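Justification of resources, computational component.

The compute hours requested in this renewal are based largely on the per-chain cost of generating structure records like the one below. Each record pairs the submitted sequence with a full structure-token output. That output is archived, and it is also reused by downstream analysis tasks.
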Amino acid sequence: MHRLLMLAAAILLVTSPSLARKPRPAALPRVELNTTLGAIVIALETRRAPATAANFLAYVDDGRFDGTVFYRAARRKADPRFGFVQGGIQTDARRILPPFPLETTDKTGVLHLDGTISMARREDPKSAGGNYFICVGPIPSMNASPDHKGYAAFGHVVQGMDVVRKILAQETGGGSDAMRGQLLRHPVRIITARRLDGTPKPTGKVKPWLMKVPR
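The structure output for this chain reads:
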């Protein structure tokens, strides 16, 4: 009788909907930025910041980041080990994709912590596109506040923070306004940017930067 009761309890544990093991959530898709200083792997918050992550993946899947550079290293004056590095298409209009809505940190919950990747933009909230930055140390001033929309964080570095720190430590100079003294003397080339998970979904748009100009 005791054995029968134990067997019944085991069956109940397996078949009860409330006690059945729930499926694990799908892992965040990753992208590898292969640079001249090493590889950086980023996990994208496709659920919490879907529009921003989708925009980044569109640039990756089209090859729009291939051959671009990390061009900025903004170090804290109080402690130059911290700050952020910025990369992307710069002002290359041939590579840019259409704008998309700003996903603020107060809505997504993706904050600017050590290793966070976020979209760079101008004053216009919808001006983010093909440029991004990676935090070295937390930067709460980048988060949304009552009087500041902040920036759209959409993922975090899962491998290669040593490479990010190497970029931050590169020699800088030049620039103007907010970028004064922060442009890399020798920009770090992004050889390729590729998905490590999932199926690429190219936009199918024209790629004018690949077209050869007749001489």
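The beta strands are 30-35, 38-44, 69-75, 83-88, 116-119, 131-136, 153-159, 172-173, 183-195. The chain has one domain: 24-198.
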